[in-house]
Amino acid sequence: MVCTYDIRFFCGDGTGHVRTAGFRVRSGFAIAVVIQGSARSWQVQACRKVLLCADDGPYARFPFHPLVEMEGSKAAMASRKAVAVVRRVARREMAALLAAVGPIDAAGVAGGSLIDPDAIANAHMRAHAKEGRLYRTEVAAALRRGGIAAQVLGDRDILPAVAGRHGLAPERLRDLLKRSGRGVFRPWSADEKLATLGALSQLGVAPPKSTC
Questions:
Q1: Are 39 and 11 in contact (CB under 8 A)?
Q2: What's the whole-number mean pLDDT along residues 126-150?
Q3: CB 3.0 to 4.6 Å from 110: which of 81, 152, 160, 194, for a disulfide?
Q4: Which strand (E) or helix (H) includes residue 195?
Q5: What is the pLDDT of residue 95?
Q6: Is 199 in contact with 34 (CB distance < 8 Å)?
Q7: pTM: predicted TM-score of the whole model, two decimal places
Q8: What is the C-alpha to C-alpha distance for residues 98 and 120, in angstroms, rounded to an integer?
Q9: Is residue 143 a part of any domain in this protein?
Q10: pLDDT of 90-125, one tens digit each?
């Protein structure tokens, strides 16, 4: 589906055609969406799941949990090893994704809550916050290694920010998100829509470098 609405908006070099990616980062994986077009008219081209961790091991998805569930030097060692595996896997899988989807002009990363983990008193919640920061940092780092400008955004702020930038009511943007991938990509749930918002956040931000 091509999403079009009657609004004039500067995009890239004025040609109005760029290719952007959005990522919804979760523990152990990310949903990636690629869109092409302009702020006035765009279409979802691809939607993929990217693994960011190994698929086995007790702390594969949650590499900071040893600091909560174990004690002393063993906890620190187990966490360091698990973090190293996440970084290695995320780097490999993100590189493979970027090679598969082709040139991208810019990317937006919807990374959950951006609160500083050290500000969280509860140890278990702090571990989850550290994991969220690790995964979104690795996704953004992989994009930048690929020469792609990346912006990290909080889930709560992204929809009103994109709606305001594009001159749309939030309800209208929600409707466009719902229809943009429905019947084409399965599933097309909240994660896919947040990834699409990440991609939309970059329309009109970066000049195009790909051939569209």
A1: yes
A2: 96
A3: 194
A4: helix 190-200
A5: 98
A6: yes
A7: 0.87
A8: 34
A9: yes
A10: 999 999 999 999 999 999 999 888 999 999 999 999
